[in-house]
Amino acid sequence: MTELRTAAKKASGCATCDAVCCRLTVVLQPEDKIPSHLTTHLPNGLHVMKHDEDGWCVAINSTRMNCGIYESRPSVCRRFVMNGPYCKAVRADYVEERASAAR
Ligand code: SF4
Ligand code: SF4
């Protein structure tokens, strides 16, 4: 494991994170009530949250880097566990991606 990955794994909490999970594909469920201007359909037909040109979900509050529709966020987002294995993995990948880009 690289030092960067180790650092990312040790880092904890959304407050120190660039809302990396909000760069993932969020597939919407029938129960989700999201305004249509925030969503799109992929070529394979999946109904998902739209992303901006930098890769983040368009519902993000880019000043605070948190969810701008928190109270009505999709069910997939509600189930995402802070500091769970997936959270740690996406953070580590993001740190490594940024380090590579800076080289
Ligand atoms: S849940 Fe994990 S990846 Fe998402 S903002 Fe919080 S720390 Fe970052
Ligand atoms: S809906 Fe909110 S929590 Fe879900 S990906 Fe978009 S900004 Fe993040």
Word description of this protein:
The structure is a single chain. The protein is of the alpha+beta class and 103 residues long. The protein has one domain. It is built from 3 helices and 4 strands. The strands form 2 sheets. Strands 1-2 form a two-stranded antiparallel ribbon. A two-stranded antiparallel ribbon has the order 3-4. A hairpin with a 5-residue loop joins strand 1 and strand 2. The longest helix has 18 residues. The N terminus is likely disordered. Bound molecules: iron/sulfur cluster (SF4) (2 copies). One iron/sulfur cluster binds next to loops. InterPro entries: Puta_zinc/iron-chelating_dom. This is Fe-S-cluster containining protein. It comes from Dyella japonica.
Helix content: 25-40%
- Strand pairing plus helix content: what structural class? alpha+beta
Q: Give the radius of gyration.
A: 14 Å
Please trace the helix and strand order, writing H or E for each element.
Answer: HEEEEHH
User: How many helices?
Assistant: 3
Ligands bound, unique: iron/sulfur cluster
Number of strands: 4
In terms of topology, how is this protein built?
Blueprint: H1 3-10, E1 39-41, E2 47-49, E3 60-61, E4 66-67, H2 75-79, H3 85-102
Helix pairs in contact: 1-3
The protein binds iron/sulfur cluster (2 copies).
